[in-house]
Design brief:
Keywords: ATP-binding, Nucleotide-binding, Transport. This protein is α/β, with parallel strands linked by helices. It contains 11 helices and 13 strands. It has 2 domains: 5-215, P-loop containing nucleotide triphosphate hydrolases (Rossmann fold); 225-280, Alpha-Beta Plaits (2-Layer Sandwich). The structure holds adenosine-5'-triphosphate.
Amino acid sequence: MSASHAIEVSGLRRSYGSHTAVRDVSFQVRHGAVTGFLGPNGAGKSTTLRMLVGLTTPDSGQARVLGSDYRALPNPGRHVGVLLDASAQHSGRTGREVLALGAMAMGLPPRRADELLEVVGLDADEARRRTGTYSLGMRQRLGIAHALLGDPRVLVLDEPANGLDPGGIHWLRTLLREFADRGGCVLLSSHLLREVEVIADLLIVIGRGRVVAQGAKQELLAAGGTVVRGSDAGTLAAALAAAGIAATRTGDAFLAQAEPEQVARAAAAGGVVVLELRPAGTDRLESLFLQLTADDSRETVRR
Ligand SMILES: Nc1ncnc2c1ncn2[C@@H]1O[C@H](COP(=O)(O)OP(=O)(O)OP(=O)(O)O)[C@@H](O)[C@H]1O
């Protein structure tokens, strides 16, 4: 395994009866970045993450974290923080007890629980409450605290933004950004394109148990060119042509095959006031994602 990759998954496959949940999934996840694992409901995200941390046995293929089978890591919580199901905690324990027990299991002092409660914004009152009374957002915060307890280098989080309000999503984004900027590796799943788009640097898109796209978010988003609309369509067309930028007209806008900055400069050089400028790739990724969702025929009305 390459030392630059924290996670390496190759040829993973898992069936349940006649249904293949994950078929030939391969990807690598590097340090120092937040990687989003994106796919519609039932695409195979949780099954893949469960195989990664040894909770589900693959029919074939292998998954390695920090160069090892997860189950072979000594004291794994000190290396890999995992949050697969925020509701899995014992509902009769208080938030603080959950963290204190986790700290003890990892050989850490109980004060580590208090540090993490502060990091995830659970106050003293909330920490004393049984987790059975927690909202989903509070459970997610507790689950993230548990994943961070052992100061791991890798985080594997299944739908961590589920149940968080917009402020909570902003908080999560900042937390994961800082973790990755310190060199950590984050792999997080989501079934919401917009959610993962604001949090992740890299994307792995999965549909029907297969990886259908992967790469840097900016590249995936930029691949479709730039949508531009100007004060005068004729002058804008001429300005783009003069700059050697191929463009096709869609209504009163153009789809230009160049980066937004090049397009803006071309428009400025032609004296056109730009009224709209955005990467078209967002649309492309969205249509790929909607197509995946539609392929699952969950949204299709059968006649
Ligand atoms: N233990 C199981 N027994 C039978 N089928 C299962 C089991 N676990 C997963 N599956 C099936 O495998 C497929 C993939 O499920 P998985 O939970 O991995 O998807 P997901 O991408 O995480 O979906 P979601 O976004 O809805 O959580 C689904 O069709 C699911 O019903």
